[in-house]
Amino acid sequence: MLCRLRSGATWQPFEISKDEYDGLVEDIKNTDLTEIGSFARYAWIKFEFDDSFDHITNWEDWMSASCEKHRDEWHKKLKRKGIAE
Question: pLDDT tens for residues 44-54?
């Protein structure tokens, strides 16, 4: 079974261990944003981590809760960069 994003990207479902996940999080936290600028749409914004959503297992519920909490601040950052009105 393939997983699919609205953008058309697809991938085979997979699982990673807790240690692998923790390693990936550390790698993301330590990524120099200038190194990924040509690969990431919002590479000028430092990654943020909010573990207050870690208990939410459904992606749609997680996205809804995250957007509700962080939407206004995200839009402020976009406005400061001149990307949003």
Answer: 777 888 999 99
